[in-house]
Write a structure and sequence with these properties.
alpha/beta; Rossmann fold; five-stranded parallel sheet; 13 helices; about 40% helix; about 15% strand; binds 5'-O-(N-(L-cysteinyl)-sulfamoyl)adenosine; binds zinc ion
């Protein structure tokens, strides 16, 4: 499916540092992409409630990574999926007496316009589960050929015992995995499974639900095979980073990697993502923002209320991507205030003066400080602090001439248009 329009990213003088990110699997800070081509798979939306600020924060985090990679001289290949057929989407469509395709199309449309407003760089491939059905079928065939699938009343499961590396992403024990599976779309309590954690790869057709023919019978895909198939097809057997909110660590990212390994017959745990990046959850009043809780703040609502999209972006960037954080009115007011300060600093430092060329307030120094912070696990708050220091000096008339170059650096590295 179409992504959204590309975002122009200015080239900065010099080169950014090699971005490091915290890898969930090894629990260590690691170079995000060791080769020249940086390959990213970000798990995308399930389109039944338009972009809320939690989604936006997660996709802005990966946007920072894409920008840091480009600035460091990498060519970036970026793929994202859209889970356009799955239980929550079908349940919402049924509840609202709506066609599930119309619901998905409408929400995908909103997502595109929200990402555009927030100046998020689009992936080269935005792939829906429905359009990926042939890829999913191929993956399921490979899993079957490895003897890893079994049937339970028409539904097909992969046996996790087929994967000696199962657990390497989350590092959790069986009990914790079982609890998380029950919370996040799994069915560990279903009787007669060979193992409670076995993931479903194909659901037999249910009355009133969409279904497609396949070697495993008429039905629809499980969730994890969707991402395993799309990532494998567009990025290859192994790639640099799989990214998502931390709610995807288990079961989703554990299972996608496991499917990929079993399909390839990987004996060394080398297949699929080399790194796993996870963003914290955005909360409202201390509770995770989620469709099921209904405590959502929509990007489209904020925009319709007249909030500057760059203030939304700054509100997100004021938080490091990894810990959970709370959306609040005070924080929005702070972001609006910061945006105004930065814009007026740019105007004040528009022309003239020696500070443009040298010294701690020169554009080159501010850019270097931002680069250094962003390369260190996407430390956006640290990058914002560097610009804040410059803006305070510029307001005092001490950074004359540096405005245009700082504006360009903020655009390229933070995606904020001043
Ligand atoms: N379609 C699947 C991934 S394949 C999915 O999780 N869809 S989603 O719409 O529920 O979430 C899209 C992305 O936003 C995922 O990376 C998810 O982890 C992230 N996300 C969801 N809720 C929040 C939240 N409250 N805060 C931060 N990120 C969130
Ligand atoms: Zn996914």
């Amino acid at each position: 499916m179409d992504a959204w329009p590309d975002v122009a990213v200015p080239e900065l003088p010099g080169r950014g540092l090699e971005p490091m990110i915290t890898d969930t699997a090894s629990r260590a800070l690691a170079v995000a992409a060791p080769g020249q081509v940086a390959r990213l798979y970000a798990c995308g939306i399930t389109p039944y409630d338009a972009t809320h600020i939690g989604h936006a924060a997660t996709f802005v985090a990966w946007d920072l990574l894409v920008r840091a990679w480009r600035d460091a001289g990498h060519e970036v290949r970026y793929v994202q999926n859209v889970t356009d057929v799955d239980d929550p989407l079908l349940e919402r469509a049924a509840r609202d007496h709506q066609d599930w395709r119309e619901l998905a199309d409408r929400e995908i449309g909103l997502y595109r316009s929200d990402m555009t407003a927030l100046r998020v760089i689009p992936p080269q491939h935005l792939i829906g589960a429905v359009e990926a059905l042939p890829l999913i079928e191929q993956l399921n065939t490979r899993l079957g050929d490895r003897g890893a699938l079994y049937d339970l009343d028409g539904d097909s499961y992969m046996s996790r015992a087929a994967d000696p590396w199962f657990g390497m992403v989350s590092g959790l024990d069986t009990r914790a995995m079982t609890e998380l599976a029950a919370e996040n779309g799994g069915d560990p309590a279903r009787p007669c499974k060979k193992d409670p954690l076995d993931p479903m790869v194909w659901l037999a057709a249910r009355p009133g639900e969409p279904s497609w023919p396949s070697e495993l019978g008429k039905g629809r895909p499980g969730w994890h095979v969707e991402c395993a198939a799309i990532a494998g097809h567009y990025l290859g057997e192994s790639f640099d980073v799989q990214a998502g909110g931390r709610d995807l660590i288990f079961p989703h990212h554990e299972m996608t990697a496991s499917h990929a390994r079993v399909a390839v017959g990987d004996a060394g745990g080398e297949v699929f993502a080399r790194r796993y990046a996870h963003a914290g959850m955005v909360r409202l009043d201390g509770e995770k923002m989620s469709k099921s809780r209904g405590n959502l703040v929509f990007v489209s609502r904020l925009l319709a209320d007249g909030l500057d999209p760059m203030a939304i972006r700054l509100a997100i960037l004021a938080h490091h991507y990894r810990p959970d954080w709370d959306w609040s009115d005070v924080m929005v007011a702070d972001a609006v205030d910061r945006l105004a300060r930065w814009r007026s600093a740019c105007a004040q430092a528009a022309a003239g003066g020696a500070a443009a060329a040298a010294g701690p307030l020169a554009a080159a120094e501010v850019t270097a400080a931002m680069r250094e912070r962003l390369a260190d696990d996407l430390d956006a708050p640290g990058a914002l602090a560097a610009v804040d220091r410059w803006a305070a000096a510029a307001a005092g008339g001490q950074a004359a001439g540096s405005g245009p170059a700082v504006r360009t650096a903020v655009d390229a590295l933070l995606g904020v248009a001043l």
